[in-house]
Every structure is written in C-alpha cells, then in structure tokens.
Amino acid sequence: MMTQGVLLFCFDTEHTRYHKILERCVRLVKKNISKNITVVTNFDTFRKMSPMGFIEYKLIEPELGNTLNGKAWNNVDRHMAYELSPYDTTLVMDIDYFCFSDNLKNLFNTEYDFLVPDTAHDLSGRNSFDQRRWSMIPMVWATVLLFKKNDKVRKIFDTVKYIKKNYSYFTEMYRIYSKNLRNDYLFAMALQQINGFVGYEKMPFALPTLPPDCEVVEINDKGLAWKHNNQISYVQDQDVHVLNKEIADV
Amino acid sequence: MDIRELKKQSDLSYDIAVAKRNALEKAHSRQVLAYNGNLFRADPETICVVRTLKENNSKFYILDTNSNPVEIKDADDFLNKLIERNQEALNTYHQMYETFTRKGE
Question: pTM for the whole thing?
C-alpha cells in the first residue's frame, strides 16, 4: 500500500508566531486535502501549538541565519523534505499556503515523480510576480511541491543540498538578484542542473498569491478578504499563498 | 460633471476587473483534471480533440499538460469527465460573473 501525505515545516521566530498560521493551514488541509499530515518543527514551537487532532510531528533544530526584510526566517530546511517525509508520495506546502479548494488533492492521483509550479497569479491584479528579470533562469515556486520517493527524486534533493552548500557561487553564476536563501531559486537551479539544462514537469496552474502589502482582514474556512489601497477584496473556494506574515494575528 | 463620481466609477471598474481576473484564474485552476495518472486541462481545445479523435477510434493517444503522450482507452469516460470538470469550473465562474454585473449596475 503506497502512502500519501502532506509535509509542513513550522518554526516560530522572535517576530512571527508561525504556529498560529500552521493551525489555520492544518484545518484547511484536513478539510480539503484529506491526507495524513506530518509537521516538522522544533520543541519551542511545538509546545505552543494547540491540539490539532491526529498529526505526526518530527522535531528538529532549524538551521538559523536566513532573514527576510531584516527579520529571522527559518525556511532553509526544505532540502531535507525527502528524508523527513514518511510518505511514498508527499505534498510539501508552505504553511502560509491556504488550500480553500481541493485542487491539490488531484495531484496525488498522478504518476509524475516531481511537480512544482513555475508561475504565480497576483490576486491584487498588479502582475508583481514576474521574477524572470531577477535572475537568468525561470523561477519555480517551491511553495508547493509534490514528489515521489524514488532514485530520480533522491538525486533532485541531493542536487538541492549541493547547491545550498555552495549557494553564493550558484547565485553569482545564475545572476540571482536576491542574496538571502530562497527555496524557489534553490529548487529552480537544482531542477535545471539535474534535468540536463532542459525542461522539467510542472504543475499546470499559477499559484494564487497575495503580495506582502495586502493586509488580510478576515479569514474563514471558505476564503479570505484583504485590504489594499483602502479597497477590500476577497476570494473564496480558491487557494491563496499569503505573503504578509501578519496573518498570524488575524 | 462630478469628478468624485467619475473616480468612484473608475475604482469600481478596477475592482470588478481584478475580481474577474481572479475568478477566471480560479476557473483555469479548476479545469485541471487528473486522469489515468496524468494531468489534463478540461478546456475547449482538449474537449474538441477528444471528441474528434473518438469519432474514429475509442482508443487513441493525447498529450498531457507536460506534453507526455498518454493512451486513452475509454474515450467516452474521458470525454464525460472533461466536460463535467469544464462545466463545473465555468458554472462557478458564471455565478461570480453575475455578481460583478450586479455590482457594476
């Protein structure tokens, strides 16, 4: 029997209570994806979490040092997803990706070894995620990854680890503007390298994304509303990747 | 001419345009269908190709969203699922579109 599940990474920082975001994310995964869930976290974050039903936990110490806008950002452990996942088929998701639909569940019923989206849809209507101009290679959105455990995928993750170890060299080589470690670029470079510098398989949809300057004002199990330029907009039954970390306090 | 009224109308039109784009994107995402281990888009092109191919043979080959060739063994079942998913997505879009029309009036 092949096992399937969702793997989530969650580490609180001094500024952001990520465990609050995780609690919302888990509720939606249970409702709309209906798969087993494993949360990778550390003990400090784990002890703050409210009970969320049957979930498997893996406690690790996150690698520190990465920042986003001058604040600690513990996001550099994604390269260990292959080893940490207990499942044959794993959907790795950022905890600020809220699945208000069951679209991602579709992906479990496929035979692809590794899938990642390569485009994002700006829900605020400004097309602000055209990242090509910030590097030489097309970016992928490592916000959501689907992988199967096999030799080919293990080599992808081995390449991710190698690039991470030599990150500054690779960011220079690919002329990546952003100097902090981003999983998006890490996986984009690894996928290009391991696939012989040609194409790779992708998720056939754009990741609906809310830019950081959009303030989430309300969220429930159906969707969310945000404020931008004194205008309120909303989506429902549509997945949303929320970049504004203040959502922990909504 | 009341410039505030014009600005209000302009803001409303912009909001409706953004909401419409988001609803259309939602429909596009919803049209993705997993069938026999591969992903397909339940769009008019796929539906027309499947309908045309099945006129000659119940088994045929078609490309998935990653350009992999896939053998379709039960054309009727595949076509039904494509149409069902296409109409589900567009029905939701239509309902949303109706609310935009009312807003704009």
Answer: 0.92
- For A116-126, letters b (16+ CB in 10 Å) and e give bbbbbbbbbbe
**Which of B66, B81, B99, B103 to substitute to test the interface with A, most A CBs within 10 Å?**
B66
**Taking phi first (over 0 means left), then psi (-120 to 50 degrees means alpha), and beta for anything else, what does residue A229 get?**
left
* A6 within 8 A of A22, measured Cβ to Cβ: no
pLDDT tens digits, one per residue of A12-32: 988 889 999 999 999 999 999
Which token pair is A36?
């087993």
Cβ–Cβ pairs < 8 A, chains A and B = 67
Q: Which residue has the tokens 């690790």?
A: A60
Both structure tokens of A25: 């994310």
Phi, psi torsion values for A148, nearest 5 degrees: -105, 150
Length of chain A equals: 250
Spatial CA neighbour of A52 closest among A73, A88, A21: A21
Rg (CA), chain B: 19
Residue B36 token pair: 């026999």
